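#struct-help
A.M.: can someone run this one for me? Single chain, 419 residues.
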Amino acid sequence: MNTLTLQANLLRTFLVVVGSILCTFTVNAQNLDPATQEIDEQKQQAIIIEHIVQDGDTLSGLTRQYLGDANLWSLNAEVNPEIENFDYLKPGSMIRIITGYEAIEPEVEAAQAKIEIIANEVGKSLQRSDWLDAKTGDELQPNDGVRTQAESSAVLIFVEDTGSESRIQMSENSRLFISNEKQESGITRNEIEIEKGEAELKIDSTAAADTAALNEFEIIIGEVSTKPSLDAAGKLSTKARLANGDSSQIMVYSGNSEVESGGVSVDVEKGMGTIAKSGEAPSPPEKLLEASTLSSENASTAILGENPIVKWSALEGAASYKLELCNDSSCSQIFRIEQGLTEPSRTLSDLPLGTTHWRVSGISASGLDGFVSETQAITVTEPVPEPEPEPTKIPWYIWLIGILYLIYIIKTIVWFMYN
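D.P.: on it. Structure tokens below:
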């Protein structure tokens, strides 16, 4: 190797080292530039193409061509980590070039359920935080909760794209939280954790196109787990209640439910119920009471302030009865519950103006709710004011007698004046 060639190689090496140092300083300076920082934040959405290197192509030149600024060459260097020398691009080789950026759409977690119906005072808790006032249409994410106050109720509808309708109806003084879990099969299991009061899960999948893809549900009360399943008609109705602090009452009105507690599972079929304490095996399923028949003689109208008496058929084995007053015929808006009624009749007091719907159910000695009756409606109206009495009409002959008597008096007075 002659001296001239050696000097040229040394000079080339020196220029490469100096160029690398200058590029490093340039990149560091760019990192302080707000425009460069904005691009860095969007790198996850970079639009990248594959480019075949042509004679004369340089990384900075290609960067200027597509991004408009040659100083951003380091961004293209990051997406080509296999290239060791960015000062030389081999013609015919393939490299990746960033041509622009797409805005990153923030991921929004899909709602698990929403509040469909509210009666009176209902609250919501987001991610188990403080309680806020709830309203119809509020969406609920996993780990959100709902609670009802006295004389209040709520209905939650679970969001599904299968055509199935799944709802939870909460009665007064109840509190629950929802969550979900993706199963290995791809099906989502909705978990309903009842911390206070009761809730009834109702599912109607008759309109579902594929019942095999339906979401699963699990109701949890302490250490007691209930896994309901649909009946042959694709329907389900299961009520779960936390009673006496540590006791769970499970009632099945349609479909089936597998109740597990203390390591023991019990299958509860339609028309049956069971009781389970945390850590103990569930009690043997017992038959639920049939629905009462409401009397056809019950009043359908009443005047505000009146207290009509309603009656229903007595049930053998009923320790008491529960009466529910609702704003609608389906009783999804329950605004009052009267429990512990020992007779098959009740005086309805303080009814509001308008139409109130009511129904009853028998309660067994163990505390399980039987099937609910049909509903009846009673409409309360304002009292009709009494009409003002019409003035008394004086007969014509009384008027005639009075006129004749007046003439007689006048004639008598005139006679005394002139005699």
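A.M.: thanks! The helical segments are 3-31, 34-41, 59-67, 73-78, 396-418.
D.P.: also worth noting: The CA atoms of residues 113 and 158 lie 4 Å apart.
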